[in-house]
TrEMBL record:
Intracellular or extracellular location(s): Membrane
Pfam families assigned to the protein according to its UniProt record, in alphabetical order: LRR_8 (PF13855), LRRNT_2 (PF08263)
One Gene Ontology cellular component annotation held by this UniProt entry: membrane
Species annotation: Quercus suber (Cork oak)
Name of the gene encoding the protein in the UniProt record: BIR2_3
Keyword line: Glycoprotein, Leucine-rich repeat, Membrane, Repeat, Signal
First-listed, main subcellular location of the protein, grouped into a coarse class: membrane
A GO molecular-function annotation: kinase activity
Keyword Repeat assigned: yes
Domain Leucine-rich repeat-containing N-terminal plant-type as annotated: residue spans: 30-72
Signal peptide: 1-28
InterPro entries: At_inactive_RLKs, Leu-rich_rpt, LRR_dom_sf, LRR_N_plant-typ
Organism domain of life: Eukaryota
Name of this chain's protein: Inactive lrr receptor-like serine/threonine-protein kinase bir2
Amino acid sequence: MAHGTRLAIALVHIFTWSFLYILEMSNGHESDMYCLRSIKESIQDPHNHFKHSWDFSNREEGFFCNFVGVHCEMPDSAVERRISNIDLRSKELKGNFPREIKNCSFLTHLDLSGNELSGTIPSDIFDFLPSLKFLDLSSNNFTGEIPKSVVNCHSLNNLPKAATLGRSQSHSAFYHYRQPKPNDPNL
């Protein structure tokens, strides 16, 4: 009887760990897919860069890793490839900063530069992207201040000194404003 009990316990452990593995894969896949779907829905793409490439009808694991501007890697703590890089620079995209980008929780590289994005950057966005190493939002039409939550991105490699630049000035800045503050110490 003891042998049967041990076998039953071993089978329960195997089933539990298998279920948790599948659940983790499903959650990562769904989270990344939701992130990309919300980007596609929230940004206007007048030149149809996403029309054929960003096709969500394919449900195979990691299918979105082949989307235009998307790169995936296998993070140490993950059991599947996750989105690590979104590079949508110079695609003439319009709209506001895609708030649901926070669902790409393994994102290390985000480049939305050279577009026509506007509005403000959500104040809590960096709370959800702690692994971000590279960020370029330059040459857009963002307004407002750089969110204070940027300090939560401990791995972000650098920020320029000039944090309040107009669109016509330097293109190397991480963040551009339409109207700089008159008494800003960073000018």
